[in-house]
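INFO batch 0412 | record 1 of 1 | parsing
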Amino acid sequence: MKIIKDKNKLRSLIQNDKNLGFVPTMGAIHNGHMSLIRKSISQCNNTVVSIFINKPQFNKKSDFHKYPRVLKKDISILKKLKIDYLYLPTTKQIYPDGPNKKIKINRFEKKLCGKHRPGHFKSVVDVVDRFIKIINPKRIYFGEKDMQQLKIISDYVNNKYRNLKVVPCKTVRSKNGVAISSRNLLLSKKETIIASRIYNILKNAKYKLINKKININYIEKQINKFNIKKIEYIKVLDINKLIKPHYSKNKYRIFISYYLGKTRLIDNI
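INFO prediction complete | emitting tokens
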């Protein structure tokens, strides 16, 4: 595994690779990231993993500063996975002239998480676009846990990059059902147990909600029994109808965003 901090050096190493996989991360590598990386390794000649905590996508400075930073552990994990390149850029490397605040993305950005995190998805797409221009991969990998992000990035890439494929990867969950996320490191044991119980409530309620045997208010009451600090939203949406082109087959998921203490968790089931 080669660790590279300079984008020009990285470009010189990968410029002739016609089947390059790319997995962008913000570090705190977990089993979810590892599933994306393994998929890239299985499908591509070489794999680039980036670790870059993208400040513009955080709506609160405090969230940016408390985001887990465990680079030594990350490097150890990535070496064992035998990736080809680890890219560790500086902010100046990625944003030589600052963020692109005029970037245009799908209107779906204003719903769900976007309603509560204005500008978040534009910042995510901006940084992904910058990495694509540096790395020029054949495939780029994202998890379905962040379904809204996946849909928005896929739409952007499909419209702008003809030779790049966004590869969606299934959500990886702990044995207790909780979707694996770097933010889980911020949860106490008690909060982890509550997150597991919320997952089970949603999982057991999914088809009753779809068939309108129960409603969202019922689910909120069940979840609020755990003294949740805040539920931002619970929505049942057809993921085949979120962004055009729409598909005829219905594929429903429950989307949720809520706070356990100071930690914001999202999921879709």
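INFO post-check: Residues 2-169 form a domain with the Rossmann fold fold (CATH 3.40.50.620).
INFO record closed
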